[in-house]
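Hey, quick one: can you model this chain's 3D structure?
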Amino acid sequence: MVPKERGRLYGLISAWLIPQVPPPLWRRAVAAAIGVVMAMMMRITLLGVHGGVGATQPFFPAVMLVTLYAGWRWGLVPLLGGALFGWWLWGGRDGLPLDEDELSTLVIYLVCGIMVTAVAEGLRGAMRGLALAREGRAEAEARLRVTQTAAGVGPWDYDLETGELYLSPAARKNMAIPVDAEIGLDDLPRYVHPDDREAAFAAVMGAIERREDYEIEYRLSDASQGERWVHGRGEVVRDEDGRAVRMIGLNFDVTNRRRAEERVRESEARFRNLADSAPALMWISHPGGVREFVNRAYVEFAGLDYDSALTLDWRTRIFPDDLPEILKAQLAGEASRAPFSLECRYRRADGEWRWLKSFSQPRLDPSGAFAGFIGIAFDTTEAKQAEAKLTGINELLEERVAAAVAERDAAQAALSQSQKLEAIGQLTGGVAHDFNNLLTVIIGALDVVERHPDDERRRARMIGAALAAAKRGEKLTQHLLAFARRQPLKPQVCRVDSLIAESEGLLKRALGDAYTFHMRLGAGVRNARIDAGQFEAALLNLVVNARDATPPGGEVTVESGPVTLAKRKGDLEPGQYLRIAVRDTGSGMDAATIARAVEPFFTTKGPGQGTGLGLSQVYGFARQSGGSVEIESKPGQGAVVALMLPVVDGDPVRERLPKVDHIQAQTPSRVLLVEDDPQVAELVDAMLRDLGHAVVRAGGVDEALARLEQDREIQLVLSDVIMPGGKSGVDLAEQLAATRPGLPVVLCSGYTGGDQGRARAGDWPFISKPFSLETLAQALARARPH
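Sure thing. Here's the predicted structure for all 786 residues.
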């Protein structure tokens, strides 16, 4: 009998003899009775009922078996039964008293029986404890396997003496190794990406040879599900003599963390570019006042390198007469942890004194705790000089009327320009605040992922939060561009009433059941040339604003109809228009509120209840579409906000063709990537390789032309529009159209000015940054000749 089968048999016998759950009372009584009867039958069968020899010996097995099955209390039953049976055989049946030897034998039997009962009870407890321990270990091993599988952690074991390698199913899954494949240490490199293979194998073999721990991250060669990253870790196990005998470790998939880090780096780069392009000083500080970020204007004003600008003590740059009052106001503002403003003279790097007006507002971490301030300061020197000039001009007005008027006009122009800069500064400060909140979510989520890499549920939740924050940042940028009339639109001839009708369900859900919703559509078959997605977003913004201004039980109505303007009205030229209005029965607006309603970040809602970008987005969309926004309202009488869009001739666009999976339909090609930003180039390079393309990179137009001259195998060019050196991506595309007319070109840009108009006017596919993998794949597919 093999050991495994023998162990199974012993287990069955012990489970039958010593059940884990105590048997019921009647079974224990039956077992005790059977033990007594069997012992008596054994004695009577072998020796009859005559003589006292062997009267009690047959009861010892019964005492042990009954004790093991039912416990020591029931083990006493056959013990006492044996004593009575011996008494009966020795003379009790005839009424004779027991002699001295018989009494001694009976006493010895009882003592030995009690000892047997005690030993059997101890053995019973030990065997039950062993069985429970075996079950506990089995349950613990099962839970460990489930936990490892759920967390994606793959353990492995390598015997340093025999060279035998064990990979758990989870470890094989993480490395895309078939479960039934025979794997040795030398077979592992072929599952690692060729670019990482040498470094990864060198790290593992070096650790094995030196008998030391190691930790490494590498990509897999299997790219069927895109680029995948694995984190591997191993440590040495030594015996009692300190000799290394085994190496154990684990691996787990870190692809999502890597992708999230790439997205965060891209988001941080966008934020830094936005901050550095602002014509004002910007900073972010810790609770103690130490700066943790400053923008380019801040560094240039200080005249220091970036690290020195972070630690600059601005008290050394403040005009001496202004210092006492500014220090007092600053301490009070920081202590209040509320928004505050300062204005005084600062010495610029060139030694000139300049007036700076700063705005600081508190920022909170993900838990809601105070995390410091974000601030922005803009130069108001020209405004101060203009005010001084205005004062002087007014004093000399009677003597020099003509000259004073000219001078005053110039001063007012300078003041107006300064006020515009101040508005830009306030706008940039609001953007910085919103982006800082988004970055707080992203950085905090990645920090949690890094500190808890094995917690799959937490990792998935944190990565989802980071992605959602990054997408909110993208939407914020789009809203700002729409307000500035810079958001690229995709206008098409659309039937407006059809778009409104299709949005009815969405509008009702946004409004909620507490309000009455009406639709009165009268535009008929009239069309407008608009971006359908932006129109739906604008209409949704108007309905949400109407809901917020209306108490529960009120009414919101969406109306449409034709309007003819016989003469110019505001921004609108004479002509035919479609008026799409949202009417509510809310609190209404006064004239001052109406005048500022479309300003960015202006809101009448409480803190945290509105960004002030809703109506500005609507206004930006309307102006980009050739129309405008009209507001009619009085306090207590509700409000009507209307989109005015020009009527156009032509047929509306038809239903789109069925969607094609451009990612899966990609044909591998050799692509020249022309991008001057190294971080963006690295990201787009990875995206192109993820689509299966080979990539050649260039940092400018001249370098791109040199690459094309050297490498005739290039099949497609993907170029940024804005380039250093005086030549743009459009110049490159035009030159290639003349010299290599069959070479497809795709243009992209994250900037809304410059040559983007030429890029969009050309025949080349154009995509706006940031773009997704699907958008990139679709543009590459459009560029190829059919």
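One thing worth noting: The CA atoms of residues 495 and 527 lie 5 Å apart.
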